[in-house]
Fold this protein.
Amino acid sequence: MSAFDLTSYLKQGVKNEKVELTPLLNGYAPKALAAKLLLYIGKDDAHCSFKAADALGQLIKEDRIAINDYKTTLINLLQCNPKALPFQFPLFIGQLSLDQKTLGVVWATLSDWVSKNHASRIFRVNCLQALYDLKTPALQHDYDLIVESLSHIPIASLQARIRILAKK
C-alpha cells in the first residue's frame, strides 16, 4: 500500500468511524504503519489526523507497537496547536516513560491545554487523564491545584473524570 493509498483509506467514511486495521496491516508492518500514521497527526487534514490517531490507538491497545518507540515524534507534536491535534493525542502522551526534563515540558503543555477554553471538551478531559497518568509524588500538589482550578468549570464530562480519578 503506498502513501497515496493510505491517505485515500484514511479519508474514507465518517470522521468518527472506527478505522479497520486489517487492510492497513496487510500493507504495512505494525511499526512501519505507526510511523506513517504519525505523519498525519496534527496536520491540516483533520479527517485524516483523527483517523490516523484512531488507528494508532488501536495498534497500541492491541500491543502491536510500543508507544515509547515513538516518544520523540509525539513530544515534537506537542508544539502543535491543540486545535490541530485529535482528541486521543493526550492519551498517547500519558503512556510515555519520560525523564524529568521532558516530563516538565509535557506537564506544562498539558496543564495549559486542560485549562484552555478553546480546546474541545473531550480533548481537555483527555489532557486531565494524561496528567493523572504522568503525575509523580513530586507533581501531586501541582495536579491537585489543576483539579481544583477545574472543579468549578461546568463541563459534565470534565467533572465526571475528576470524580473518577479521585476514586483511584
